[in-house]
Amino acid sequence: MPAHNVLPQQQRTASLSAPDDDAALALRVAGGDREAYSTLVRRHLPRVLAVTRRMLGNEARAEEAAQEALLRLWTHAGSYEPAKARLTTWLTRVTANICLDRLRKRDEEAWPENFDVAQPATQERALLDGQVSVKVNAALQSLPERQRLAMILCHYEELSMAEAASVMDTTAEAIESLLSRARRSLRRQLEPEWRMLLADDDAD
Amino acid sequence: MNTKHTREDLLKELERALEMAGANPSRWPKSCCARLSAFIETDEAAARLYAEHKMLDRVLCCAPQGSPRLEIEKCVITAAFALRQNRGSSSLLEMPLGGSATRPRLLPFPIRLPTGSLWGEVALLAASLVLGVYIGASGDAVPALRGIDMLASSTDGGAGVAFAGSLFEPSGLHEQEQL
């Protein structure tokens, strides 16, 4: 039985009033503390949802995946070891794995590529409407899964190379390689957009 | 020649840093950050490359972010607590992660004691034990069998008690048999 499961009741009660950090809250969640869990959900939902949105490219599926990730925090908090990683890293790894699983299932079920965001009609409309965000999302979705995940973790979530490597269970060198390829691809795909901005900037 | 070679190296180094971490020098490797920042200040091609990546970063910032809706937060918390309730008071952490959440658990010992309705059966078993001991001690089964007849014909608990009493009074039934 993990040590925190035999935490004396007095100690648990005392920690309620202490400044709450993620690790302490996670230990309380492992003991079934609902208040601690609610706090962690409020704190981490934005990041979890940001990752699932960018990975899955679809709001409904992103919300489902985020919910699944945070449910894992409730059911598997006992497996979190503060000495090994920050809770953010642990939770991001859980989230990333859920996203990758869902993307693989989507592939197995032979859904159309970029089913949600990158259909030609959508892209065309985006161009016409000047909706750059749709184009960016489409470009992100077109990246191979691991490149996209590396990009999301390092660029959007601002994880260090080492943290991203820990989340993706790989080396920092591999992350560098994934990032380089991802960014090269995005640079090529989004060239009209960034060139337009560059021209505006030059004109100013 | 040497200067040109160095400039190419720096350009390659800058390109690598930009592809890895974008136009954000604070995320570049510390070992080359200062060198590359100075290079951008002095080299036109480097400055151009940096500007291009800076614009790409601005474009990438346009990716839809959204904000978590309050309903999602409530939904997650409600679902989690419902999950724990459905699994009773036992914590998931009491079992291995790969184990079944619905694995049956033995009740604690006191709860497995017989309830009131079982006391009759317990009394009968105790009587059988006493009878067995008596037969073993006396070496004569006849009075004991008569006692069983009495017990079988009786319908109330009092007969059982009378029978049990007779077993410890050898002068009773045993003497009658001798006569």
Measured on Cα atoms, how large is the radius of gyration of chain B? 46 Å
Straight-line distance between termini of chain B: 138 Å
Helix count from the secondary structure assignment of chain B: 8
The biggest chain-chain interface is: A-B, 53 and 37 residues
Structural class of chain A: mainly alpha
Oligomer: heterodimer
The stretches of 5 or more residues of chain A where confidence is low (pLDDT under 50) are 1-19, 111-121
Shape of chain A: elongated
Shape of chain B: rod-shaped
Helix fraction bin of chain A? over 70%
Q: Secondary-structure element sequence of chain A? A: HHHHHHHHHHH
| Average pLDDT reading of chain B | 69
Q: Please state the CA-atom Rg of chain A, rounded to the nearest Å.
A: 20 Å
Instruction: Give the fraction of residues assigned to helices of chain B.
Output: 55-70%
**Percent of residues in β-strands of chain B:** under 5%
Q: Detail the poorly predicted runs of chain B.
A: 88-115, 157-179
* Quantity of strands of chain A, as a count: 0
Name the beta content range of chain A: under 5%
Question: How would you briefly describe this protein structure?
Answer:
The complex is a heterodimer of chains A (204) and B (179). Chain A is mainly α. Chain A has helices spanning 9-17, 22-30, 34-56, 59-76, 87-108, 120-129, 132-142, 145-156, 161-168, 172-189, 191-203.
Overview of this protein structure:
The complex is a heterodimer of chains A (204) and B (179). Chain A is mostly helical and 204 residues long. Helix content of chain A is 75%, strand content 0%. Chain A contains 11 helices and no strands. In chain A, 42% of the residues are buried. The model of chain A is unreliable at 1-19 and 111-121 (pLDDT under 50). Chain B is mostly helical. Chain B has helices spanning 2-21, 30-42, 44-60, 70-86, 119-138, 142-153, 157-167, 173-178. In chain B, helix 1 (2-21) runs parallel beside helix 3. The interface between A and B is large, with 53 and 37 residues.
